[in-house]
Specification:
Layout: H1 7-14, E1 17-20, E2 28-33, H2 40-50, E3 55-59, H3 82-99, E4 107-112, H4 114-125, E5 132-136, E6 158-164, H5 172-184, E7 188-194, H6 203-213
Parallel strand pairs: 2-3, 2-4, 4-5, 5-6, 6-7
Antiparallel strand pairs: 1-3
Helix pairs in contact: 3-4
């Protein structure tokens, strides 16, 4: 599938790192969001591990290595205005892709840790913006999922959430709540909680995301 877009010009204009297929020939473009203390170049090996020769991976970078300053379950105002700016940055990239021929059916979001939280939050606030989302060790942002005000539907959205049951940063209950929130609004959700402790990405998650993006 060809698209009228120049990879080098697009990534330079948007300030993005790139891995995988060139945008000119990619079937799908995955906007990939790094975790706290990392950077755009550091998250792209995740896309390389997933593979899929017809998928492009693009990664924006958070200023100072963090999309927002405090823990993701703090009151929303504790992470503003940084969270709002981070969400706007994701929206900017998705909108630019859409204008270049990559509409929602040909885009996805993927993130690890803080990036996973940002990916889920972006999807929750902008229904219909992407075809799929992979959240690795993350959950919806804010002190409560049940108190969220969004009512938009997510019919047709494919979601994968993977996390350790004993992740030191992401409570398993928040992963379950996030899966339920999206599932109740029409998304097709797969959630896997692993008994092994840690805050990392395992081989089973890589395989699941590869299937999600295939």
């Amino acid at each position: 599938m060809m698209t009228t877009i120049d990879t080098a010009a697009f990534t330079r204009r948007l300030g993005l790192a790139h891995a995988g297929a060139p945008l000119e020939t990619a079937r799908l473009c995955v906007v990939t969001l790094h975790g706290r203390g990392a950077d755009a170049a550091g998250i792209l090996p995740l896309g390389e591990a997933i593979g899929l020769g017809d998928v492009a991976y693009l990664a924006p970078e958070a200023a100072g290595g963090a999309w927002y300053p405090n823990r993701f379950m703090e009151p929303l105002e504790a992470n503003e205005p940084f969270l709002g700016r981070a969400l706007a940055r994701v929206g900017q990239v998705l909108e630019a892709l859409k204008e270049s021929g990559f509409g929602p059916a040909r885009t996805a979001l993927m993130g690890f840790s803080q990036g996973a939280c940002l990916a889920l939050e972006s999807v929750a606030r902008r229904p219909g913006s992407v075809a799929s989302v992979a959240a690795l060790s993350g959950g919806l942002i804010g002190p409560s999922v049940s108190g969220r005000l969004e009512t938009g539907r997510h019919d047709g959205l494919d979601v994968f959430l993977g996390c350790s049951l004993m992740d030191p940063h992401i409570p398993a209950v928040r992963v379950r709540e996030s899966a339920a929130f999206l599932g109740e609004r029409g998304a097709d959700v797969t959630m896997r909680l692993y008994p092994e402790p840690g805050h990392t990405v395992n081989g089973d998650e890589i395989a699941a995301v590869r299937s999600l993006f295939s």
